[in-house]
């Protein structure tokens, strides 16, 4: 049975968190040492939408997610989260950014999804621990609760991280290359969960992806990025040969040494 079929047995919050207003990017520019990684991006993620972010390597896809979640501060423009609280955003970074040598078990990793309810200094009691156990079972890892995360395969670890997100009850879910280096069975199971978050629960899901065929098959909306926005809208209209060719050309022509329109030290970016 797939995770989507068993997720009802996991955490069942009294009211599912949903966005009431779009997440809007206004003239968003993010730079590293004054060199822009993304430049003048405008658009919005509608409440309850399922959007893929695609583009060439180095196009700024991960940077955009980090700006939305608040890990990077814009040098120009703003991110308006609408009604979302940054503490209730579920963010999955790339696996390369996760320290798997840290001595923590599967159960404790998944239980971190409760932090927005109990706080970092709070206690996870038996009921919340049982919720975590059900989430672990729902992603197909029953019996793995005491395994250290360092012993898991890439696919098993990704299942653990999705189980943690199940506990967060987030209105906005941000996924950075969630299916990279993951086996086909795990990808299919996790896509089932993504579809449930979007279709059944009405959450807003944004995922950075590289597989254009996968995007066409599973994601209704797409943002095509090449440091700047090439196209943003329904996937069929965005992922045209002309747009994909333009994204490659823009990426190849980009001057990585160009200075941002505004000095990073003088930016007064607004985040809320």
Topology:
Blueprint: H1 3-6, E1 23-32, E2 35-45, E3 50-54, H2 61-69, E4 76-80, E5 89-92, H3 106-111, H4 115-118, H5 126-138, H6 154-168, E6 172-176, H7 184-200, E7 204-208, H8 212-218, E8 221-226, E9 228-234, H9 235-238, H10 241-253, E10 270-271
Parallel strand pairs: 3-7, 3-8, 4-10, 5-6, 6-7
Antiparallel strand pairs: 1-2, 1-4, 8-9
Summarize the structure.
Helices cover 34% and strands 22% of the residues.
How would you characterize the overall build of this protein?
Helices cover 34% and strands 22% of the residues. The protein has 272 residues and is of the alpha/beta class. The protein has a six-stranded mixed β-sheet, with helices on both faces. It has a four-stranded mixed β-sheet with strand order 2-1-4-10, covered by helices on one side. The C terminus is likely disordered.
The helix-strand sequence is HEEEHEEHHHHEHEHEEHHE
Number of strands: 10
Radius of gyration: 19 Å
Individual helix count:
10
Head-to-tail CA distance between termini:
40 Å
Average pLDDT value? 86
Helix content: 25-40%
The coarse silhouette is globular
**Strand order across the largest sheet:** 5-6-7-3-8-9
Largest sheet data: 6 strands, mixed
């Amino acid at each position: 049975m797939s995770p989507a079929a068993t997720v009802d047995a996991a955490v069942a919050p009294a009211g599912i968190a949903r966005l009431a207003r779009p997440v809007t990017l206004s003239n968003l520019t993010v730079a590293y040492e004054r060199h822009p990684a993304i430049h003048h991006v405008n658009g919005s993620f509608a409440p309850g939408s399922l959007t893929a972010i695609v583009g060439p390597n180095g196009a700024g896809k991960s940077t955009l997610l980090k700006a939305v979640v608040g890990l990077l501060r814009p040098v120009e423009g703003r991110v308006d989260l609408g009604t979302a609280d940054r503490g209730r955003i579920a963010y999955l970074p790339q696996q390369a950014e996760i320290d798997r040598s840290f001595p923590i078990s599967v159960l404790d990793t998944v239980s971190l999804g409760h932090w927005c309810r109990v706080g970092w200094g709070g206690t996870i009691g038996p009921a919340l621990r049982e919720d975590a156990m059900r989430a672990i079972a729902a992603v197909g890892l029953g019996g793995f609760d005491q395994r250290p995360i360092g012993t898991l395969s890439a696919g098993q670890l990704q299942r653990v991280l999705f189980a943690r997100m199940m506990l967060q009850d987030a209105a906005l879910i941000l996924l950075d290359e969630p299916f990279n280096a993951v086996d086909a069975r795990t990808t299919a199971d996790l896509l089932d969960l993504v579809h449930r978050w979007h279709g059944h629960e009405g959450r807003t899901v944004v995922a950075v992806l590289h597989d254009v065929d996968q995007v066409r098959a599973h994601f209704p909306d797409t943002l095509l990025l090449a440091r700047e926005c090439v196209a943003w809208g329904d996937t069929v209209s965005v992922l045209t040969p002309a747009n994909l060719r333009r994204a490659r050309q823009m990426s190849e022509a980009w001057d990585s040494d160009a200075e941002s329109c505004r000095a990073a030290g003088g930016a007064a970016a607004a985040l809320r």
